[in-house]
Design a protein that fits this description.
Length: 196
């Protein structure tokens, strides 16, 4: 029995000590774009496309990190129960917002232009959504969180210079400021968006 265990340990050591291959941010974006393009150009029903797009988002986007960022200073005032409720609501809100915006595109063509490492934690991947007969060319910069090189995650999209996370943060801030900073009003607003 001891010999078998020793053999298993010796056999597994190379796999346990070899670091996982890190995924380059540009490769991550290329894979996401290709997968999304295949989904959007398919003949699948809209509901099926939405499910598949949401799977991409849940795997590759730091939804919780974006949610905490968009809450800004107000996240410090939440108790544990409110944090759990907010994370759940924001996740549903984000996925609905994400898929409903994308599902209208039939076959988006996105070209990768460049990559710029900001620091150890962040890399920006610059892309262009190519012009069509209906839409102009759009510059999209992907802010990739690379603290864990084995699992880089999207933290923000900057569309024509406008940060979507920052825009969302300002919207949430406005809702809270107009309602005596009562988090329940933000919860209500998110719930209304999710069910409509």
């Amino acid at each position: 029995m001891f010999k078998i265990k020793k053999f298993i340990i010796i056999f597994l050591i190379p796999f346990l000590t070899t670091p996982l291959a890190s995924k380059e941010p540009t490769l991550l974006i290329k894979e996401i774009v290709n997968e999304a393009s295949m989904i959007l150009s398919s003949n699948d029903p809209v509901e099926s496309k939405i499910i598949k797009l949401n799977d991409i988002a849940q795997t590759n986007v730091d939804i919780e990190g974006i949610g905490m960022y968009t809450l800004g200073k107000y996240r410090k005032n939440l108790n544990e129960s409110q944090k759990i409720k907010y994370k759940k609501l924001f996740n549903s809100y984000f996925l609905k917002s994400f898929s409903s915006r994308l599902v209208d595109y039939s076959d988006p063509k996105i070209s990768i232009v460049s990559e710029k490492k900001i620091n150890e934690k962040y890399t920006i991947v610059n892309t262009v959504l190519e012009e069509t007969s209906k839409n102009p060319e759009i510059k999209i910069d992907w802010r990739i969180y690379t603290k864990n090189p084995e699992r880089p995650l999207i933290r923000d999209l900057i569309v024509e210079g406008l940060s979507l996370a920052r825009t969302q943060k300002e919207e949430f801030k406005s809702i809270l400021q107009n309602n005596n900073e009562n988090i329940d009003y933000l919860f209500k607003s998110l719930e209304e968006f999710i069910i409509k």
